Amino acid sequence: MKVCDTIGNIPYQAIEKKHIIAGVERRKETPAMAVSFLKALKGLFKCAIEQDLLENNPTLGVKRPACKKTSGFPVWTEEDVEKYYKQWTLGTHERVWIDVLLYTDLRRGDAVQIGWKDVKDNIIHLKTEKSKY
């Protein structure tokens, strides 16, 4: 059972906390990858324990790497929007998407999900990512 290329020659029963920490460290330049790696292994070893394949979880106590805080994307000015409108005329996919983003106030993740299936009587009916309704 291979966990990753660097420790693929070690049986899963012999994997220790130090191996997990080393794997996280190898991915620390891209913290999101390190977090994903750790999440995957936590799930794998939790399942192994539930299936009585292991007694101890080597991922316990391994800390998630800190993700860099960013200020996000810059806010567009009216001039930015005007430039975009000049570049992309009505009818282009690019124009449709900026209009969806500007006039629906949806998050990007929700906006990309919109389709004609969500429009009834000229009203968009959509369950958003962070909403229970």
Question: How would you describe the overall organization of this protein?
Answer:
The protein has helices at 17-26, 31-50, 78-87, 93-104, 108-111; strands at residues 119-120, 123-124. It is mainly alpha-helical. The chain folds into 2 domains: 1-69, Orthogonal Bundle (DNA polymerase, domain 1), CATH 1.10.150; 78-124, no CATH class. A two-stranded antiparallel sheet has the order 1-2. The longest helix is centred in the N-terminal third of the chain and has 20 residues, at 31-50. It is elongated and about 60 Å long. The mean pLDDT is 87.
Short description:
The chain is mainly α. The chain has two domains: 69 residues, DNA polymerase, domain 1, CATH 1.10.150; 47 residues, no CATH class. It has five helices and two strands; from the N terminus they run H-H-H-H-H-E-E.
**Count the strands?**
2
CATH class of the largest domain: Mainly Alpha
Biggest sheet, strands in spatial order?
A: 1-2
> Taking all residues together, what is the mean pLDDT?
87
**Share in β-strands:** under 5%
Report the C-alpha radius of gyration, rounded: 23 Å
N/C terminus separation: 42 Å
CATH topology of the largest domain: DNA polymerase, domain 1
